Amino acid sequence: MKRTVVLVLLVIVATFNSCTIKFNGASIPPEMKTINVDFFENNAQLVVPTLSQQFTEELKNRIRTQTRLNLTQGDADAKLEGRITGYDIRQLTLTDNERLTEGSSRLTITVTAKYTNNLDPKQSFEESFSSFKNFSLTGRSLQSIEPQLIKEINVMITENIFNRAFAQW
Length: 169
Known about the structure:
This protein is α/β, with parallel strands linked by helices and 169 residues long. The chain is built from three helices and six strands, in the order αββαββββα. Helix content is 34%, strand content 28%. α2 packs across α3.
């Protein structure tokens, strides 16, 4: 009887040790150890000088803090590369209630990302990711709120890229 219980426990432990389930949603195969994240160049028509650096660092930080992967230069088990393709500020004219609003605007950032999984090429992709934040300039300048808007949008886009690459359910 004890032998059967021990055997069942060993099977359960072995099963869970071979899984790569994490509470942050990442499902990275155990054989994947390294990733190379290239600099995301800003190719948008409207260029914010610090956007490329901020976006690239936010993506690296997400990988650094939410995976066990080592960031490396050169050859790696996986690679993330891409470019910022859109930075757009537009005036909004309608709210959800279909009422005109004064001074409402939307900042949208679009990034094209290419993920290459050198261990399992079927998991590779190249896609466009876009997020936005609505804002009002009431009593403020765009320069005073733009850094926070960029930060919030970068978080959303890097989360989407991260989930697409590492949280395939």
